[in-house]
């Protein structure tokens, strides 16, 4: 990143609010950074006149907040917004080939909250088609021949490439935590419905979560305070007790992923954390099938009218999801929804019984795989999303090839 641009969200926001980094100067630096990286990473939906628009909006901010003491917490901070969020002034395409305007709707509270906090919308970030598995053009900022993950591909890659310090994404299976891991950034998916989902094109209402990306874990709280309902700062600095969920779930990680995870857990133990191994989710195969059935059934309902009219425009991966969902019986769907609550209760009960504060697990099966045809396997995120529990991806080093 340009050395004149602070590397953390908190330091950038502070510099812009105080005027230590003048907003007009920052826009110039950001444009240079964009010219340097975006053509390779392809994190954003193309926009003609992007920086002319940003300069107009920056000038309006400067006029509105001439008194630096009155500047809001994200004054002038550029934000990437996954292209399934409705954003006033932007077309919503959701990574699809459906007709322009078909998917439009009013801006949702999450985007509006960021605007009211002083953020500038850098642009729509690339999503896989309808936030499922059909990839867009985005590349991993650390290795362009590798996937950035999905479905919040552009948001994770934009932060990983230093194009922005904050981006919005969503997670229905593993679409925040996995791309955050692949791109070497922090990703936070709060508890189910903790961030308002209105103004977001759904995949599965029972499983969709809004999440955020920042360069560092310590940056997440600044954005969470603005976006999360009833946000509270941590009440204690006590080190949390960590639990490793042993069993068929953890066995889904690759050998490389497991080796790195075990090394990371040992580093935590060596640093003074209590780490406990706990048998968990013996029925993981059933959890896996239940979640995917739920997502398919609810996606089929969301897309019933659009797919009926424009089915030939859908990618085959999305079409297969919808067609699978069309065959799910109502009683199967109801059982899958009930299973979400059951899993949440089982996992939290295990936490109580073993006196742990947090589960620790791999955020992906391994590092980002080569190629752009797949966004990688989201299986390591699936149970936490199914249960609606909050998750944070913490960067934990690289593999031998230098990938996060």
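^ structure tokens above, recovered residues below v
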């Amino acid at each position: 990143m340009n050395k004149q641009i602070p590397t953390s969200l908190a330091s950038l926001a502070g510099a812009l609010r105080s005027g230590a980094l003048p907003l007009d100067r920052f826009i110039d630096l950001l444009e240079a950074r964009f010219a340097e990286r975006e053509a390779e990473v392809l994190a954003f939906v193309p926009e003609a006149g992007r920086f002319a628009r940003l300069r107009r909006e920056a000038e309006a901010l400067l006029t509105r907040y001439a008194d630096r003491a009155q500047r809001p917490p994200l004054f002038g901070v550029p934000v990437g917004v996954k292209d399934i969020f409705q954003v006033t002034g932007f077309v919503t395409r959701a990574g699809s080939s459906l007709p322009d305007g078909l998917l439009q709707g009013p801006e949702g509270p999450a985007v509006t909250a960021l605007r009211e906090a002083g953020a500038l919308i850098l642009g729509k970030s690339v999503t896989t088609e309808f936030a499922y598995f059909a990839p867009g053009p985005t590349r991993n900022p650390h290795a362009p021949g590798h996937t950035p993950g999905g479905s919040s591909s552009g948001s994770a890659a934009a932060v990983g490439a230093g194009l922005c310090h904050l981006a919005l994404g969503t997670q229905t299976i593993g679409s925040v935590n996995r791309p955050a891991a692949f791109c070497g950034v922090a990703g936070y998916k709060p508890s189910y419905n903790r961030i308002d989902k209105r103004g977001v094109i759904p995949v599965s209402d029972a499983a969709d979560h809004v999440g955020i990306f920042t360069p560092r874990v310590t940056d997440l709280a600044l954005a969470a305070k603005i976006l999360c309902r009833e946000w509270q700062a941590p009440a204690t600095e006590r080190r949390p007790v960590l639990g490793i969920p042993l069993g068929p779930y953890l066995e889904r990680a690759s050998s490389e992923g497991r080796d790195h995870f075990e090394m990371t857990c040992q580093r935590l133990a060596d640093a003074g954390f209590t780490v406990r191994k706990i048998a968990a989710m013996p029925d993981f195969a059933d959890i896996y099938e239940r979640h995917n059935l739920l997502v398919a059934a609810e996606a089929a309902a969301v897309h019933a009218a659009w797919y009926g009219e424009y089915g030939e425009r859908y990618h085959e991966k999305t079409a297969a999801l919808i067609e699978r969902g069309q065959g799910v019986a109502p009683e199967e769907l109801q059982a899958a929804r009930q299973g979400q609550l059951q899993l949440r209760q089982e996992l939290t009960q295990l936490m109580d019984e073993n006196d742990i504060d947090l589960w620790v697990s791999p955020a992906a099966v391994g590092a980002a795989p080569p190629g752009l045809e797949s966004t990688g396997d989201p299986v390591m995120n699936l149970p936490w999303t199914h249960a609606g529990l909050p998750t944070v991806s913490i960067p934990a080093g690289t593999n031998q090839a230098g990938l996060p």
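The chain has 13 helices and nine strands.
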